[in-house]
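Field notebook, page 254. I keep forgetting to write these up properly, so this time I am using the form the group agreed on. The chain and the ligand, NDP, are recorded exactly as supplied. Prediction of the bound pose follows.
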Amino acid sequence: MPAPAADLSGKTACVTGGGRGLGRAIALALAGAGADLALIGRSAEPLAETARDCEALGVRARPAVCDVTVRPQVDALFAQIHKELGGPHILVNNAGTSRQSPILDFTDENWQATLDLNLSAVFYCCRAAGRYMVPAREGKVINIGSSAGSRGRPNQVAYAATKAGIMGFTKALAVEWAPHNIQVNCLAPGRFNTEMTRSRIEDEEANERFLRMTPMGRVPEIGEIGGLILFLAGPGSGFMTGQAVHLDGGSSAL
Ligand code: NDP
């Protein structure tokens, strides 16, 4: 394994949606750099498995079953993390949902569920973590956006609206918390192969079309999100806040 880009030992990182997909890769990268982990999600088993894999890297890792759209659960969870692991010093708002259909068929329920998870839960988690970060005068918040937040694609009105919203949320909070020495940035991935995107990647024609709009011409390995996470979570990004960084094989450069 290459040497970690940051030494995060002594830090506690919270990753929402940390059991699988990009959240799991993010958690493993942070654990590899020495951070203790709180892995947050609704399903116990994937959280427990990722916690075991993080602990195998020599850190403490706690599976934390919590629906981040339910505010009282979030408040109680962050109080418990603070008590048990300390911090939190790093918060990665990764849990997200991408519900797709033409707007004329898009249900109120899907609209609301997208807002609840992709935006309201980010607000709840930042506020709950901030209760500890602000007095400690230390914190790193990484909000996972999407290239869909800055470009139009069909069938994605709710997803695009929330991912664009995250970029605005990131800027506002970055400015508000800069005097408290807390950096808030947005990492906007292009398409990675996870449960969220698998059917689109397995559709050969759609995937080829997508790759034609990706200068790097490939779907990244899931671990390729780790380097940027470690930079944004570590001391190297101490003067960087309010930014949206695209990790998309160059598609946003077109
Ligand atoms: P997945 O669908 O693979 O995973 C989503 C994660 O969120 C799961 O761990 C899930 O766990 C968790 N989650 C869902 N609902 C809740 C909830 N109410 N409370 C707590 N946790 C919840 O998604 P990806 O890994 O693909 O995506 C992660 C993030 O990256 C998302 O924000 C997504 O929008 C963004 N992104 C992904 C891209 C990709 O190509 N994959 C591209 C651009 C952005 P559980 O169901 O157990 O709760």
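OBSERVATIONS:
- Residues 16-17, 19-23, 40-43, 67-69, 94-96, 98, 117, 144, 146, 189, 191-192, 194-197 surround NDP (CB under 6 Å).
- The chain has a mean pLDDT of 97.
FOLLOW-UP: compare against the apo run.
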